[in-house]
Amino acid sequence: MSLSKPQSKLTVITGPSGVGKGSLVRKLLESHTDLWLSVSATTREPRPGEIDGQHYFFLDKDDFIKLIEHGGLLEWAKFAGNYYGTLRKPVEEKLVEHRYVLLEIELEGARQIRKSFPDAFQIFLAPPNSIELERRIRGRGTNSEEDINNRLKRAKDELAAKDEFDAIVINDDLDAAANELEELMGLLA
Ligand code: ADP
Ligand code: 5GP
Predict the structure, then answer these.
(1) Are 147 and 134 in contact (CB under 8 A)?
(2) Is 21 a pocket residue for ligand 2 (Cβ < 6 Å)?
């Protein structure tokens, strides 16, 4: 399996909230067992059905700040009122084992990874249009009105930064987008 950036074992997937990052990553993981997805730490409340240690490590703010202070995070950012960050140790361990590592993170985190891992392959996931993006966020039914508005505001900044990325994939049809990701990441070889 070779990635478009041949030395890179690290792929970053970024895109506005509700675009379908989680849905697409789940699809990739189902069919490619050699991929490993980093489980992030966050201070946000779990959504119904989310499991600590599986979807996120759910921390309180003090513990999150301690992680930052002790250098435990590869990157971190504040998003819609909560902190999110990538745990350094498990990612570094997987890279040492030459595993293919996926980070599903927002824009500020992607920018930090671009500095610390310039070889990482960075993919931006875009919606077909902004009306469909809002429909998806609302359709998920797990966010308050205030949170939805924060996320839609942030989506504008994220979409404006899409050209910073190595590749842009439009998630219109889910299967077609998954296929495009597989092709870009060299998973079909
Ligand atoms: P993200 O992880 O980017 O916040 P999700 O994967 O949670 O987004 O998807 C948000 C909502 O959009 C979910 O209800 C999901 O089922 C739906 N969705 C994802 N991809 C598509 C698509 N290609 N077409 C229609 N709905 C989609
Ligand atoms: P959600 O609350 O919808 O799960 O995630 C909100 C945003 O935080 C999404 O854009 C998601 O990609 C991003 N995110 C999740 N984990 C991390 C992380 O470890 N670091 C950063 N920077 N963003 C993250």
Answers:
(1) no
(2) yes
What pLDDT, on the 0 to 100 scale, is given for residue 115?
A: 97
Place of tokens 């931006």: 124
Q: What topology is assigned to 10-185 in CATH?
A: Rossmann fold (3.40.50)
Task: Summarize the confidence of residues 111-136 as an average pLDDT.
Answer: 96
* DSSP 3-state of 33: coil
Burial of 90 (0-12, 13-18, 19+ CB in 10 A): middle
Q: Are 110 and 102 in contact (CB under 8 A)?
A: no
Distance 176 CA to ligand 1 centre (A): 14
CA of 115 to the centre of ligand 1 (A): 29
CA atoms within 13 A on the CB side of 24: 31
- The DSSP call for residue 56 is B
At CA 11, angle to CA 100 and CA 91, rounded to 5? 60
Q: Which amino acid is at 150?
A: N
CA 24 to ligand 2 centroid distance, Å: 15
Does the pTM of the predicted model rise above 0.85?
yes
Nearest to 80 by CA among 123, 38, 43, 131: 43
